[in-house]
Amino acid sequence: MASFMITTNNSSIPRIQVGKVHSLTQLCEEHYRLTIQVPNLREALPGQFVHLCAPANDDSPYRIVENKDDTHHEGWATQCRTPMLRRAFSIAGIVTTPDGILVDVIFRVVGKATRWMASLVPGDPVSLLAPLGNSFPISSTRKKAWLIAGGVGLPPMLWLAQAMNNKEKQATLFYGAQSSHLLALDLDHDTHCSPDASQAVLSSPSLAASNVPVVISTDDGSVGLHGHIGAAIEAHFASVAPDPDDLVMYTCGPERMMRFVADFCSARNIECYVCVERAMACGTGTCQSCVVAIRDDTDSQGWRYKLCCAEGPVFNAKTVVWDTVL
Ligand SMILES: Cc1cc2nc3c(=O)[nH]c(=O)nc-3n(C[C@H](O)[C@H](O)[C@H](O)COP(=O)(O)OP(=O)(O)OC[C@H]3O[C@@H](n4cnc5c(N)ncnc54)[C@H](O)[C@@H]3O)c2cc1C
Ligand code: FES
Q1: Ligand whose nearest atom lies closest to the CA of 277
Q2: Candidates 2.60.120.380, 2.10.240.10, 3.40.50.150, 2.40.50.140; correct CATH number of 279-326?
Q3: In the CATH hierarchy, which fold is given to the domain comprising 144-275?
């Protein structure tokens, strides 16, 4: 989905609606892009997420399947095709069409819900609670943005890249993956791992409309720079020497990586925002299951828990108390 567009409509609060699968595309060995068509959606911004499950009718998430299972003492096991609770997915892009609004999510198959999502076909119903959470602040003064994604932290960065282009910012995407077969991004040309960060800037057809170059690293060196994305950031920073006062960094991915980016920015006085992911039950601030420790000088212990779903998932990196997070 190429163009960035913030949608508007007549609903003022996030609400549950049943959309239908527009398309499902496999991006690499374990990642898929799922595009869901919904009739309308409250205005949404990069950083926000959707909460997904199967609709509660004949395609109920509690649908029971009795499988023959000789290992079970009764000779059968009860299974649900989809889980009881919704799952959170960052919005990777939104486009308005005459037929409705197309919402993109990109997911890696890791468990029951994502296995169900990978089995969907066009026309299948999907229950969607959206849009949820806050969004990435976009600086009115700083002209450069580095977007740092690790693994399934990529989707919100793709939408943010489009937003940056719309705001005429100079964005660069840094994307770290374990290996080329787990890279959820298409590249214009094949590249071999390069020891030179300045040679490692690539382009992706998915980001062509946003005009955002990509620096890739893989843990096994199968594409892009060999090693951790943190090393790529350090090398690129040394190579292009950006003015810290003109730069904002945004990051989403494994917390170890986000902490590295937060420390990197803190040491250089660069503004930085992290998109934190927590296992979520309700997604709407009720169950209190998704806490993140955030500095708060008004609290006697100097920090308090905030809810990732309702007060996040985007936080200023310097406010996150990482030691209670990890
Ligand atoms: C705000 C937000 C945005 C997200 N965006 C995306 C996205 O764009 N793409 C994507 O693929 N995933 C995303 N996730 C993670 C996704 O919601 C979970 O991986 C989800 O649990 C998958 O459901 P499942 O039933 O397939 O796997 P589950 O059976 O629920 O989980 C499989 C494994 O992943 C672990 N796990 C579950 N949730 C998390 C989490 N939040 N952080 C770390 N480990 C977890 C579980 O402990 C378990 O080991 C996001 C999560 C949040 C909170
Ligand atoms: S998921 Fe229930 S409060 Fe955040």
Answers
A1: 1
A2: 2.10.240.10
A3: Rossmann fold (3.40.50)
Coil/strand/helix, residue 76:
strand
Closest atom of ligand 2 to CA, residue 280 = 1
Q: What's the CA dihedral at 263, 267, 273, 278 to 10 degrees?
A: 10
Whole-model pTM: value is: 0.89
Q: Would you state the CATH architecture of domain 15-132? A: Beta Barrel (2.40)
- Residue type, position 291, single letter: V
Q: Which ligand is nearest to the CA of 282?
A: 2
Encoded tokens for 31? 């990642």
Determine the longest span between alpha carbons in the chain, in angstroms.
Answer: 67
Instruction: Classify the C-alpha dihedral 11-16-22-23 as positive or negative.
Output: positive
Output the six-digit token pair for 222.
Answer: 């199968």
Number of neighbouring beta carbons within 10 Å of residue 20: 16
289 Cβ below 6 A of ligand 2: yes
What is the best residue among 86, 288, 311 to mutate for testing ligand 2's pocket, by most ligand atoms within 8 Å of CB? 288
The residues near 163 (Cβ < 8 Å, ≥ 6 apart) are: 4, 45, 46, 136, 138
Mean pLDDT across the stretch 287-313?
94
State the distance from the centre of ligand 1 to the C-alpha of 15, rounded, in angstroms: 21
pLDDT (tens digit per residue) in 75-127: 454 555 667 789 999 999 999 999 899 999 999 999 989 999 999 999 999 99
